[in-house]
Amino acid sequence: MSLLYRQIADHYLIALRDGTLAADTRLPSVRRLMRDHDVSLSTALQVCRHLEDLGWLQARPRSGYFVQRPRRASLPPVSEAPPAPPQPADYVGIHERLSSILARGQARPTPVNLALAVGPPELYPAAALSRSMQQVLRRQPLLLTTMTRRHGHPALKAALARRALDRGIHASADDILVTFGCTQAMNLALRAVAEPGDTVAVESPSFYGMLQILEGMGLRALEIPTSPRTGLSVDALAFALQRDAEEADPARSRIRAVMCMPTLHNPLGCVMPDAEKERLVRLCEAHDVALIEDDTYADMGSPGTQFRAAKSWCRSGHVIYCHSLNKNLAPGLRLGWILPGRWQARVDMLKYAQTRFSEDLSQMAAAEFLASPGWERHLNQMRETLKRQRERYVDGVARHFPEGTRLNPPEGGMLLWIELPEGVSGDAMFDAALEAGIKIAPGSMFSNAPRFDRFIRLACGWPYTPQVDAAMRWLGERVRSMMA
Amino acid sequence: MSLLYRQIADHYLIALRDGTLAADTRLPSVRRLMRDHDVSLSTALQVCRHLEDLGWLQARPRSGYFVQRPRRASLPPVSEAPPAPPQPADYVGIHERLSSILARGQARPTPVNLALAVGPPELYPAAALSRSMQQVLRRQPLLLTTMTRRHGHPALKAALARRALDRGIHASADDILVTFGCTQAMNLALRAVAEPGDTVAVESPSFYGMLQILEGMGLRALEIPTSPRTGLSVDALAFALQRDAEEADPARSRIRAVMCMPTLHNPLGCVMPDAEKERLVRLCEAHDVALIEDDTYADMGSPGTQFRAAKSWCRSGHVIYCHSLNKNLAPGLRLGWILPGRWQARVDMLKYAQTRFSEDLSQMAAAEFLASPGWERHLNQMRETLKRQRERYVDGVARHFPEGTRLNPPEGGMLLWIELPEGVSGDAMFDAALEAGIKIAPGSMFSNAPRFDRFIRLACGWPYTPQVDAAMRWLGERVRSMMA
C-alpha cells in the first residue's frame, strides 16, 4: 500500500496553510509534480484530488488546479485543548448521565434524528446481501440447525484479512476472531489486558461507548488531551506513561492500555498524522502497554483516500485492532472482528466464555460481498455520498449557527463536532432540541469529566433534506437565543 | 400450568421403588385413578404415561398398565456424593485443563463424536426456519442494513414470554432481554450481581461453561454437593450460606450468587424435585443472594412431561432466568434470553456495553416458528427421538461396559453421566478414545477440583448407529482393560 501521495500532499498542505501558496495562485502542474517528486501520473493526480477533497484546490477546466481557502474557513476551528498535564485517573461514572440522556431521547418522537452515528439503510448494499443470504439458505438447507464454528467462518476471515491489507496490516485469517460487533471486540481486548481497578488511557473527548465499557468493567479512565485536528496527544500520553512507570507506590493503579481511534475519530472526525500513529505504537511498545485501536470509521474517508492503521506499524503484537462491518457494510448485522496480537489465546478464551460463536449465515453473506467487485463499488459510492453530505451539513451549520460557533470539517465519517459560542450549554441544547423533535448528542456524553459541556455532536450520515435544513436553522436560532 | 399429574405420579413412584407395587402386578385402572385422586381422564392418563416413560410401567393392550422394573435396573445408580460440608471457595482455574482437552479433541479426526451436547441438524426444523427467513428477506428488503433494535425484537420477546409460561413463569415481553446465547445471558447475570473476588455457589459437578465464565471474571467457585438423582443439595447450600452470613471477617469473599441447573442438569441429567426447587428459591431470597437458573435443557424431557422452573416460585425478583434456543430449536442460531428480575436495569446496561443488539433476521424467523403450531409438533418429535436415543445409548452402556459401571438413566436431555469402575480414570479414557477416533468428555471438565476423575459424559443426541455401537463396545473393552 503506497501512501506516497499523502506524504507529498502533506508537503503542500504546509505551504497552503501558511499562505506560501496563496489563494487564486496556480498549483504546480501535474507534470511538474511528477518530475519534482519522481512519481507516476496516478500518484500526482491523487495528490491533487486529495488537496481538492480537503477543500484547498479548485480544478479549473483546461487550466489546472488553483488554490482556494477551504470553505471551512467560514467557521473557525474548534479550540485546541489546553496543553495541560492529564488529570488524575478516575473510575468512570457516566452510566446515569448517559441513561438519562438516552431515555429522554427515546421517550419523545424525534422526526429529525441528528444523533445516529450510522447511515440510512439505503446507503448500504441491502439487495446484494439479501440475495446472497437467500442463495446460501437454498444451497445449505441445514445451515441454521448446524452448530456454528469456533473463531468465525473461514471465508469471512479470509476476506477480512484482505481488508486488513488495505489498512497496511499483514494478517492471516487465523489471526482474526469474528465478534459480535466492534463493541464486543473492544470488551474482549480490555478484559484480556486489564483487571478491575486498573487504569486505561483514553482520548478526551472519546466515544461514549468506550466509556461505558470501562464503567461496566470497573476500570479507571485517564483522559489524555486530544487535538481536534491531529488526535491524541502522544506527548501528553508519553508524559503520563513516564510518570506511571516512575510511581513508587505499587498499590497505585497502573495504566494497562491505551484506547484510541486514530483514524476518523468519534466525535472529532480527525485523523492522526502517520508519524504520530507510528510514535504512538512505539511508545506503547516501549512501556509494554496494550494499544487498543478502534478503526470503525476508517473506510469513510473522502473518495480515493486511504488511511494506514496504527496496527500497521506494530511488529510486537502490542496493538489490538478492532473493527466492524456495522457502519461500512450493514447496520443490521452484528459482525465485528479483532486482531488480538499477543493476547490471542486469552481473547479466544474470553470470547468462547462470553458468547461462543457467531452465526454462519451473515458471515457467509458478508464474506461473499467483501470478496466481490461490489465491495469497491459500494465503498466508492458511500464515500462520495458521505463527502457530499458532510459538506452540506457543514455548510448548514455555517449558514444557520451564530458567530462564535466553531467546527473543523471532518476528514471523513459522518460526525460533526461543534463548539458552541461562550455561555451556551450542550446539555441545554439537547433538552431544547428534544422538545422541538430534534435529536442531537450533547458533548457531555463524551467525557467522564464536565469538559465538553459547550459541545454538541451532529451526525451527517442521512441526506440533507429541507427538513434537516429547517432543523439546523432552528438549532442555530436556539444557540443565538442562549448566548444572551 | 397444572403439575398435578407429577404429584400423583410421585406418590406411586414411592410404592414402585420400595416394591409395594411389585413387578408384573397391575396398576390401579385409569378410572380408579380418576376417582381416587379426583382428577380428569387426561390427568390420569398423564400419570400413567409419565410412569411408563420412566420405565416403571408397561401398557398391555386391553389389559391396562403393568409394573416392570425399569430397564435401567441393569446398571446400578451413580454414587451419591458424600454429605460432607462444602470445601472452601476457590478461584476457578480450569482454563488450561479445558484448553488442553479441547485442543487435543480438535487436533484429531474423530469419526464418532460423543462429546457434542447438541443434536444433529436433522433433529431441528431447518426447512421451516429457512423458509421463514427467506420470506422476511423478501418482505423487508432493507432489513439487513437497518440498525437493530434495543433489547431484542418485539415479536420474539412476545413468543418467549409465552414459552416462559410453559415453565410456570409469568413474564411480559418487556421483562425479557434477547442475548447471544445462554452463555451471554449467564455472563450478564454474573456480572450484574458479582465483582471479581466474590464467591459463587455452583453445583458439583457443573457444566464446564459455567466454570469458564467464573474464571474469565475472576470469581471463586464454592462447589455444593449435588445428588445425581435430585440435584443440588439445598441442605448443604443452606449450611454454606449460613456460615457465610455469620462470618465476622468483612474482607472474606462473600457468596453473591448461586448458579444452578435445576432441570435436566448438565452433566447429571437429573431434575430437582419441585419441593426442592421451591426451597432453593426461598433460601436465596432469605439470604438476599441471586439465584442464576440455567434452564437450557428444560424442553427435552420425555414426551408429555413439563418441568416448572425455579423462577416460577419467585416473587421477589431474586431469580435470574437464562435460556436459549440453541439446543431446542436451532444450533446454528445464537439466540438466548434472560429474565433479569430485580437486576433488569443493570443487565440492560451491561448488555448494551458488551455487544449492543442482536440481529433481527434470526429473531423474526424464530419468533414466527415459536408462535406456530409447528413448534409443539417439533417439540413432541424431538422429545420422542431423544427419549428413544437415550434408551438405546443407556442400553449400549449396559451391554458393553463391565460390571462396576454406574449410570442413572437421565430424565431427559441428551447426556449420560457415567461412573467408571474403581481404578479407571476418565482422563485416561478420553486420551485412549481419542486415539481410536472417539470423542468423549472426561469428568474432570466438570469441576474445579479433581472430584470426578472417575466419570465420563457421553452425549446421546445423535442417532445410535452401528458405528456408535462399535464405539460403545470399544469403550467398554477399554474400561475393562483399565480395571486390571
Structure explained in plain terms:
The structure is a homodimer of 484-residue chains. With 484 residues, the first copy, chain A, is of the alpha/beta class. Chain A is 42% helix and 14% strand. Chain A is built from 15 helices and 17 strands. In chain A, the strands form 4 sheets. In chain A, strands 3, 5, 6, 7, 8, 9, 10, 11 and 12 form a 9-stranded mixed beta sheet that branches. In chain A, strand 13 (406-407) and strand 14 form a beta hairpin. In chain A, helix 6 (154-166) packs across helix 12. Chain A is globular, with a radius of gyration of 23 Å. At the A-B interface, helix 5, helix 7, helix 8, helix 11 and helix 12 of A face helix 5, helix 7, helix 8, helix 11 and helix 12 of B.
Strand proportion of chain A: 5-15%
Bin the helical content of chain A.
40-55%
Number of strands of chain A: 17
Query: Which class do the helix and strand fractions of chain A yield?
Result: alpha/beta
Q: What's this entry about, in short?
A:
2 copies of one chain form a homodimer. Chain A has about 475 residues and is an alpha/beta fold.
